[in-house]
C-alpha cells in the first residue's frame, strides 16, 4: 500500500528557474514491434522502429549536444544489450539514464511476479553493461501493482510512468519514499507508425505519419507558451518526450532542433534531467513543501486509475 503527497501551492523551483523542461528520450528501437496475426513481428513496423537505434538515437544525441542541454534517456534493457554503443555514448555525454522495462513489455498485462522479475532483469543489464545502478524508471503502460512493486522490490528513487500532473508528487509505502515525476505524450507518441496488421487499427498512439512536422512544432510551442505563462505564478514543469524511431527521423528531428532554439530564448527556462528534478523535489519535501492528498492506494484495481485521473 502507498500514499501520495502533493506539493503545496507555496512550492517554487530553485532561484532563477521559471520552467524546467525535462527531455525524455525513449531509446527502445525495435522493442514493442507489433505482431502479425501469426505472431511473427510485423516486418514494416520492425524496420521502422529499428531505425531508432541505427540512426535516430545518434541524431537525437547530436541535436541535444548541439544545444548543450541535458536530458534523461529511458532505455530498454534489451535495446542496451543489442546496441550498447548508443547507451555508452549517452553515459559519456553526462545525461541521466533510467530503465524503460526490458523489452518494452506492457506491464498492465503482467502478473506481479513477472513484473518484478523484469524490473530486476533490466536493472541487472545496466549494471553489467554500463556499470551503472539505475535510480530511475518509466514503465510501459503501468499495472495496478507498479508503484507498490517499485517501492517494495527496488531502490528506484523516481518513477516517471504516470501522466497525471504538472509537478512531481511523493509516493510513500513499504517503508520508503519515491518520487513520481509525470510525463506527457503531446510530443511524438501521440503523433505513430502506419501498422500493416488490421488487428491494430489507427489510434492516437499510431497516427504520427499523418501529422506533418509543423503540427508537432505548433503543439510543442503552444504547450511551452501555456506552461511558461503559468510558471510566472506557480511552479510547473514541461515534460518533453521523444522516441528514437519517431523524432529521430530527419524531418522530425528538425522539429526538436527548432523547439530547443525557441525555448532557450526565454529567461528562467532550464533543461534538466529527472535526477536533478528529483533532487530539487526531495529538498523541497525536506522543507515541508509536500502535503497529503488524502486516501491510500494498494495494488488493486483502483490504484492506478486514481493516480491517473484524479
In total, the number of domains comes to 1
Strand content bin: 15-25%
Total number of helices: 9
Q: Could you say what the CATH architecture is?
A: Alpha-Beta Barrel
For the terminal residues, how far apart are their CA atoms? 18 Å
Describe the structure.
The chain is of the alpha/beta class and 310 residues long. It has one domain: TIM Barrel (Alpha-Beta Barrel), CATH 3.20.20.370. 38% of the residues lie in helices and 16% in strands. It is built from 9 helices and 11 strands. A 6-stranded mixed sheet has the order 5-6-8-7-1-11, sandwiched between helices. α5 links the parallel β5 and β6. α1 packs parallel to α7, α4 packs across α5 and α6 runs parallel beside α7. It is globular and about 55 Å long. The C terminus is likely disordered.
Topology readout:
Layout: E1 2-7, E2 19-27, H1 43-66, E3 72-75, H2 77-82, H3 84-92, E4 96-99, H4 112-130, E5 136-137, H5 146-153, E6 158-159, E7 169-173, E8 176-180, H6 213-231, E9 238-243, H7 250-263, E10 269-271, H8 274-286, E11 290-292, H9 303-309
Parallel strand pairs: 2-3, 2-9, 2-10, 3-4, 5-6, 6-8
Antiparallel strand pairs: 1-7, 1-11, 7-8
Helix pairs in contact: 1-7, 4-5, 6-7
Amino acid at each position: 500500500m502507498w500514499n501520495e503527497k502533493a506539493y503545496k501551492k507555496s512550492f517554487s523551483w530553485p532561484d532563477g528557474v521559471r520552467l524546467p523542461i525535462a527531455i525524455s528520450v525513449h531509446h527502445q528501437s525495435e522493442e514493442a514491434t507489433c505482431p502479425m496475426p501469426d505472431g511473427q513481428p510485423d516486418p514494416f513496423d520492425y524496420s521502422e522502429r529499428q531505425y531508432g537505434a541505427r540512426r535516430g538515437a545518434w541524431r537525437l544525441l547530436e541535436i541535444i549536444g548541439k544545444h548543450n542541454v541535458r536530458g534523461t534517456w529511458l532505455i530498454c534493457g534489451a535495446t542496451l544489450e543489442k546496441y550498447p554503443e548508443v547507451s555508452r555514448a549517452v553515459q559519456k555525454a553526462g545525461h541521466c539514464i533510467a530503465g524503460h522495462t526490458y523489452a518494452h513489455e506492457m506491464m498492465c498485462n503482467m502478473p506481479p511476479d513477472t513484473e518484478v522479475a523484469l524490473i530486476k532483469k533490466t536493472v541487472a543489464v545496466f549494471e553489467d553493461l554500463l556499470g551503472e545502478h539505475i535510480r530511475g524508471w518509466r514503465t510501459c503502460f503501468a499495472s495496478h501493482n507498479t508503484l507498490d512493486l517499485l517501492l517494495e522490490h527496488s531502490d528506484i528513487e523516481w518513477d516517471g510512468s504516470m501522466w497525471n500532473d504538472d509537478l512531481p508528487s511523493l509516493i510513500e509505502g513499504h517503508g520508503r519514499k519515491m518520487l513520481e515525476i509525470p510525463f506527457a505524450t503531446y510530443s511524438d507518441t501521440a503523433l505513430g507508425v502506419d501498422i500493416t496488421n488490421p488487428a491494430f487499427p489507427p489510434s492516437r498512439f499510431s497516427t504520427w505519419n499523418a501529422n506533418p512536422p509543423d503540427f508537432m512544432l505548433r503543439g510543442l510551442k503552444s504547450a511551452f507558451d501555456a506552461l511558461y505563462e503559468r510558471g510566472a505564478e506557480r511552479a510547473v514543469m514541461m515534460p518533453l518526450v521523444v522516441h528514437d524511431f519517431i523524432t529521430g527521423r530527419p524531418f522530425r528531428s528538425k522539429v526538436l532542433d527548432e523547439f530547443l532554439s525557441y525555448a532557450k530564448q526565454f529567461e528562467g527556462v532550464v533543461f534538466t534531467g529527472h535526477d536533478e528534478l528529483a533532487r530539487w523535489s526531495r529538498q523541497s519535501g525536506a522543507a515541508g513543501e509536500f502535503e497529503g492528498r488524502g486516501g491510500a492506494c494498494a495494488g488493486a484495481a483502483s490504484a492506478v486509475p486514481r493516480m491517473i485521473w484524479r
